[in-house]
């Protein structure tokens, strides 16, 4: 955790929390003066990306689109400020932070009024584990010099996520007496597993895999293109298709065989959006067996592909990535913990799902971990979304 102070100014009265993920940017304002205590409001969730339209003349192509503005654009070129969770394009990141803080856009209302003075505001920003020191220093420079915050702190995500309400509310008092635990963080840029002791991550025991939301979305985009539907100009639409249709199979081989033997029972149809009649870039899922009239509409039918995409989390080798799967990665993190703490670590697994990665099943992860490492039948595995 890195902190810095701009000056010896009075204690800030407002606190802004920013979860700067690779896929989504989430922000909220904490008002410590509220009579009921600190409250987080209003929460803003937008894609952590900017885009430019491919059509609309020179003026349209030069306009930067943020948040829901991207949703209304049928064809666009999208740029993300981060790579594998690490910010590499600070100019793009500043555009997004400014939109979240001050708004000033058609579909984006900021946390504060436009032109608000930030000299009495503290900001907390999440960052991935093992973030390079130079990246954090540049981030501090941006927050202090460009935005003028009174105080700023960058917090490693495994540390800050343990205090989220979605996690603390799921463990009883007796369970919290166990100081050990395992954080399994499944996100857009990849998945990480790290043991913790008294809430502090044991960094030398951390494990990482590159398969996450980005990899699975790109794989699905190629599979859809193979079926003669090119969605290169609409990456957020491909993400919505994956989140809406793909899921993790309990028994992958058996369910694929069933889907091939009885395709009519398992096939689902995604009706692509019609931009001539609606401003939304998102489509909808229907069951072909219902016989809905789709004449004149573009659609995608998916059968066993719905399971193949999510199976990459458990077996990355199935899409050509030679790495351990999610369960094996988690088991390796447990086995790298000090021998005296392994049993305690395995008994309190805190699984944070930062985005929809395809219907991850708790029982599937726990069962695979028990097969890969020593028995973990008594593990407390709690999934959560922030």
UniProtKB/TrEMBL annotation:
InterPro entries reported for this sequence: Actin, ATPase_NBD
Reactions catalysed according to its record: ATP + H2O = ADP + phosphate + H(+)
SUPFAM superfamilies in the record: Actin-like ATPase domain (SSF53067)
Signal peptide: none
Gene3D superfamilies: 3.30.420.40, Actin, Chain A, domain 4 (3.90.640.10)
UniProt similarity note: Belongs to the actin family.
Protein name, per record: Actin-like protein 10
Record organism: Perkinsus olseni
């Amino acid at each position: 955790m890195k902190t810095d102070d701009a000056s010896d100014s009075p204690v800030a009265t407002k606190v802004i929390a920013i979860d700067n993920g690779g896929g989504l940017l989430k922000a909220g304002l904490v008002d410590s003066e509220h009579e009921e205590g600190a409250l987080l409001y209003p929460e803003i969730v937008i894609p952590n990306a900017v885009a430019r339209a491919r059509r609309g003349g020179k003026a349209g192509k030069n306009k930067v689109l943020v948040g829901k503005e991207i949703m209304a654009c049928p064809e666009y070129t999208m740029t993300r400020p981060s790579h594998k969770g690490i910010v590499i394009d600070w100019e793009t990141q500043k555009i997004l932070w400014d939109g979240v803080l001050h708004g000033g856009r058609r579909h984006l209302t900021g946390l504060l009024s436009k032109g608000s003075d930030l000299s009495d505001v503290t900001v907390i920003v999440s960052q991935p584990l093992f973030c390079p020191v130079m990246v954090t220093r540049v981030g501090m420079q941006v927050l202090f010099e460009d935005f003028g915050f009174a105080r700023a702190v960058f917090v490693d995500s495994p540390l800050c996520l343990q205090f989220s309400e979605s996690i603390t509310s799921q463990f009883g008092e007796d369970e919290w007496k166990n100081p050990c635990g395992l954080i399994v963080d499944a996100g857009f840029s990849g998945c990480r597993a790290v043991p913790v002791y008294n809430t502090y991550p044991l960094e030398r025991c951390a494990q990482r895999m590159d398969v996450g939301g980005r990899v699975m979305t790109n794989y699905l985009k190629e599979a859809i293109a193979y079926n003669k539907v090119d969605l290169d100009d609409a990456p957020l639409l491909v993400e919505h298709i994956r989140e809406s249709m793909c899921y993790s199979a309990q028994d992958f081989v058996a369910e694929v065989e069933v889907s091939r033997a009885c395709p009519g029972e398992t096939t689902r149809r995604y009706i692509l959006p019609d931009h001539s009649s609606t401003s939304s870039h998102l489509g909808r899922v229907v069951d072909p067996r219902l016989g809905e009239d789709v004449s004149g509409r573009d659609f995608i039918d998916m059968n066993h592909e719905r399971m193949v995409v999510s199976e990459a989390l458990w077996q990355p080798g199935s899409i050509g990535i030679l790495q351990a799967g999610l369960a094996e990665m988690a088991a390796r993190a447990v086995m790298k913990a000090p021998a005296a703490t392994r049993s305690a670590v395995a008994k309190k697994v805190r699984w944070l799902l930062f985005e929809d990665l395809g219907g991850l099943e708790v029982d599937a992860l726990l069962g695979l971990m028990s097969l890969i490492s020593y028995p973990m039948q008594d593990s407390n595995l709690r999934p959560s979304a922030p």
